[in-house]
Amino acid sequence: MTASEHDNRPRRSALYLPASNAKAIVKARTLPCDMVVLDLEDAVAPEAKEEARTAAIAAIAEGGFGHRQVAIRVNGLDTEWGAADLAAIAASRADAVLVPKVNSPEDIARYDAALSDAAPQMQLWTMIETCESVGNLPAIAAMARTTRLSLWIMGTNDLAKEMRAQLTPCRTPFLPFLAMAVAAARTHGLTILDGVCNEFRDLAVFEAEARQGLMFGFDGKSLIHPAQIEPCNAVFSPSETDLAWAHGVIEAFTLPENQGKGAIRVDGKMTELLHLEQARRLVEVHGLIQGMK
Ligand code: COA
Ligand code: MG
Description:
Low-confidence stretches: 1-5
Radius of gyration: 20 Å
Bound molecules: coenzyme A, magnesium ion
Helix content: 40-55%
Distance between the termini: 17 Å
CATH superfamily of the largest domain: Phosphoenolpyruvate-binding domains
CATH topology of the largest domain: TIM Barrel
Number of helices: 13
Strand content: 15-25%
Number of domains: 2
């Protein structure tokens, strides 16, 4: 994989499932999501934690997830299960560990150290879901330069709980954080996924929320139910309109009269070399998505 393929790899849809749900694990191997997150944390009751850890590790050893990246979400190191979760996953072939409730760059260093014996390709992903982390976004993101940190997922349910804010479909109280998190992630080359939509029976609500995430610049969205995958992939894939625009821009910049120019007119709009870069990226992402079919 080239560096650019790595950066642009489709990460449109990340499906969570409780690692204690054996049926859901079997099902996840056939679903069209780009990523699977086997959860040991919020979706698993305290009395099922050990069993869920064993099931998650066994699922990774068994494999069968194909092109899907597989992460395990651990319990925090400040809980009675966290250290054992991390030790078990460090010794596994999971693609990533997803860590909840990080607050600071020091937390990232702590989790990175807990993975010191893990395979070099194992990534550290974190939730952004505490009030404290919202104040530390640039410093946390900067840890991507020196640690395994490579991806963030917004945890809007936990943020709502901590803030005592209301998580309505328009998500007004969270919009400043969503934008700040995307900007911090982009500064340091992190992939960033939007939070879950709890309304899994209402796909119109889901789609509107996914489109809002796309507008904010997210690479994809975290999901809780298989029915959300197809609409999510559709929203986060370049559309036909996007591709027509991209090809138009690429073509326009190859015309002899546009050689050596930084800004040109395409379809009556100012188009600059920065748009050419955006256009090339869209075409590359489209090609990678087509290659997955
Ligand atoms: N991953 C894989 N399969 C799933 C799934 C998931 N997240 N959610 C549901 N399914 C499966 C069910 O096992 C069921 O399979 P079956 O038809 O073979 O029996 C099928 O999809 C339909 O499920 P459905 O009846 O619509 O949902 P439910 O009422 O049983 O469960 C939830 C609803 C929300 C409890 C369930 O979707 C879930 O556990 N989601 C993930 C929660 C989670 O991980 N949260 C942590 C992060 S926020
Ligand atoms: Mg949570």
